[in-house]
Every structure is written in structure tokens, then in C-alpha cells.
Amino acid sequence: MKRESVPQDHARAFMGHSKILYAEDASGHLDRAPSDGWEAEEIVLDQAIAEYARQAAAALAAARAGSGSTLAFHMFDQRMDMLLLAQSTGYPRWRVRRHLRVGVFARLSPTIRARYAEALGKTPAELDRVPESA
Amino acid sequence: MTAATDVEITFDHQQSAHCESGAIAALLRHAGLSISEPMAFGISGALTYAYLPFVKFGGLPLFAYRMPPGRLIRGLTRRLGISMCMETFKQPEAGMRALDAHLAAGRIVGIQTSAYWLTYFPPDMRFHFNAHNLVVYGKRGDQYLIGDPVIDIRVECAADDLRKARFTRGVMAPHGRLYYPQTVPAEPDWARAIRSAIRYNAGMMLHTPLPLVGVRGIRTVARKIRHLDPTKARYNKLLLGHIVRMQEEIGTGGAGFRFLYAGFLQEAAEVLGQPVLREIAEELTGAGDIWREFALHAARMCKGRMPMDFGHLADQLQACAARERQVFARLRAATK
Q: Inter-chain contact B170–A38, Cβ cutoff 8 Å?
């Protein structure tokens, strides 16, 4: 890649920052070249974020309807999935899957709730709350 | 708690492409060894290609363009004869105290963190990745002064956030890992280190027993893409997007570290006095350009800006594989 073809697509996600790519200068030497975004990266980043948002929105609707736990919403809202939440808490997957059920979550012990709260960067009380419908 | 004393150690922050090579190169430069990021990356022997279908991220397989976190620093320091001091901690408090003690002693340190809990990252760039690396060079009140290799400016992070980032659990959990070079040779044997690293990399790219690593790994992924089930449109898009993110977004310097490695080969050509390495670097840059084109086309297909064409993407990957086979075969011959 030549230095002049380093993409500068002003990616929104970079918020004015830029990243370093290595590109060829006039003499063919590869050197650091800043890029403030690239179409390809922006597409796939938006796609990944939209996927978390979609899952969080579905979990939120389920939590409001009482068919899903608020824990499931916070999990997706913090860009996690069941596997990642299991790894971040140290609980086996089957237990996390069970804890995500609305009835089981309501009866969790304070110790277990604290562990989930810690992994999700919340206070235990915050785990019960979901955003008001906008 | 120890009394909050402000410390700021003189540190030359330079933005780099990748966090691990950037952090270790910065630490070594600070210790008086003149080394560029491409050189650090190249000597580590960390370049690779790996498709690991049994390791899942968000339900998608792992595509790696370099060796697992930690191997970069280990490979580099071993080949250059640098001894590193590495510390991990069971208790977060102990880890934070140790960090403060190093700073108070005037020592800058590299630390491993989760990228998600670092509040200075733009929100859309925060993902659960536990092997981010950064350099801490001071503390002002409750704020740590940080040279994050992938960020263009110096940043700060509050103690509570940094503690959380250093002590997340899960895959590749950092356990508060903190490191700094202990003894750095004044004049390491560059030529020997470079040759050893190139031979190691060529071996990995060309001769792996499993068709999941190296050039054969690229071919496997090409075949997998060619035979994706068109009825699973949703999964296909997620998979392709995931591949592109692993290749481009995760601080690779472009084309999944290929440009960074080509930069290393150019420097190596000077050190070893072998102009042929310059030619091979150019060939690898050419392979990198195909990787970039693949990423752009795959992304556009995900977005519907190009018609979905698995055969076309597979052909591009096969072209990358063919080029890289040639590049590493030539490298092997050049470092006999």
C-alpha cells in the first residue's frame, strides 16, 4: 500500500483519533502512516455493534415483558454473550444459562449476584434495573 | 493506602500499529535500546496465520494473524538476550500497590489489561479483549498517566477503572500482569536474532502438520468461504465481518500484520546486508494489498454494496496463500 492510498474515511467510531498503518513512502520504504478510518473497518465494526445492540434490545423487550431476566439485558448491553459471561464470572456455562432465566435470577443469592455485578461493572442493585422505555 | 504522591517519568510516547509490539518497543527504547516497532515484531517471530474453529468469540471461530498474546514479548526478548521481569498478582490491591511502587522508584512498566474497561477508549472501540498492552509512566492524584501504544495522544485512566481492566477474569485473564526489562544488552547480536526469527516464521508458515496454520490455514479458510451455505445469509455476514475485523481492526498495521512484517524485512535487509530481503518485502507488501482488497470486498458484500460472491473472496485468499508460500520459501532460502 502506498502512503497516498492510506484510507482517510473519517470513521465516526474513532472520534477524531487515528490509527497507525504501515505504508510505502515515495522511496518504497514502509513507515508509519496515520489513518482516520476505512470503509471496510467501519462496515464490520458497525455490524458487530449492531449485533450486540440487536441482542440487547431483544433481551430488554423480554425483560419488560417478564419473560426474560434483566441479567440477560445487562450481559448483551456490556457486549458479552453467555460464554463470555461464564468466563468472566468463573461459573460453568450451564449455571450461567440457568441463572439467565427470569425465575432463577430472581432467587439468586447475594454472593452470586455480586459476582455477576462485578463481571458486568455494575452494582448488584443495578442488575435489577433496565432503562425506562424511551 | 500509601500517600498519594504525584510521579511523572519522562517518556517518549510514540503511536504504534499494534499494542504488544508497541509497548515492548517503547520499554526497550526507554531502556536505551534503539528498536523500531517492525523490528520488534519481526524478531519476535509472532507473524502467523491460524484458523482455530474450536476457539469461539461471540460464537464465531478464531482467525489469528499473529501468535497468542505474550508470545511476542517472549520471542523478542529471548532472541535478543533481554531478561524481563514479569509479575502477576492474586490480589488487585497488591497489583495496584506494586504498580505505584515501580512508579515511585522511577520505573515505567508495561501492563496487560482488558480493552473494555479502559474508559479513555472511544465507546465504539471497547470490546472484551483481555490482552491489551500499555505503558504506565506516572500518576497524578487518582489518575494514571498512560502511553497507550495504539492511541495517538497520551491518556489518563482513573485508578478504579485501571484496577478493573487489570483484573478481569476469563480467557487470557491478565492477573494484573506487569513487566519491564531487567537487563538489556548494549549491543545484541541483531543478525543472529533476525535470521533465527525469519527461519522460525518460514517454518511456521510453510510446514505445519495441521491444515489450520500457515499457508495451509489460509487455503482451508478459502475453501470454507467458497462452500458457505448461501441460505444462511445472516451467519455468513457475521462470519465475514468477523474475519475482516480480526485482520484489520485489531491493531495490525494493515493486512493482518503483513505490512508490519514487510517493514521488518526492509530493516533486516540493511542489517544483514542482503538486498534480496528488500525484494521479498515488496512481494509481501503485494500480498498485503490482496489481503486489503479481500477485506474491502468482503465488507462491501456484507453491507450489500457488492453482490455476495464467495468464489471471488476464496480466489483472493488463494492468491494470498500462493504469494505467501513464495515469500516464505524465498525467506527460507535467504536465511540458510
A: no
CA distance B331 to B272: 13
Which of A34, A40, A121 lies at the smallest CB-CB distance from B295?
Answer: A40
Chain A contact present for B255, CB below 8 A:
yes
Burial environment of residue A43 by CB neighbours within 10 A (0 to 12, 13 to 18, 19 or more): buried
Residue A20 cell numbers, joined = 497507525
Find, among B111, B53, B26, B112, the residue nearest to B243 by Cα: B53
- B122 to A22: CB separation less than 8 angstroms, yes or no: no
Note the pLDDT of residue B56: 87
Question: Which residue, among A10, A18, A43, would best test binding to B if mutated, counting the most B CBs under 10 Å from its CB?
Answer: A43
Spell out, as residue ranges, where chain B has pLDDT lower than 70. Answer: 1-4
Inform me whether the C-beta atom of residue B238 falls under 8 Å from chain A C-beta atoms: yes
The ipTM of this complex is 0.92
User: Are the C-beta atoms of B165 and B92 separated by less than 8 Å?
Assistant: no
Q: Tens digit of pLDDT for each residue in B186-226?
A: 899 999 999 999 999 999 999 988 999 999 999 999 999 99
B119: left (phi over 0), alpha (psi -120 to 50) or beta: alpha
Predicted confidence at residue B1, as pLDDT, reads 46
Q: Considering CB atoms only, which of A1, A12, A31 is closest to B254?
A: A1
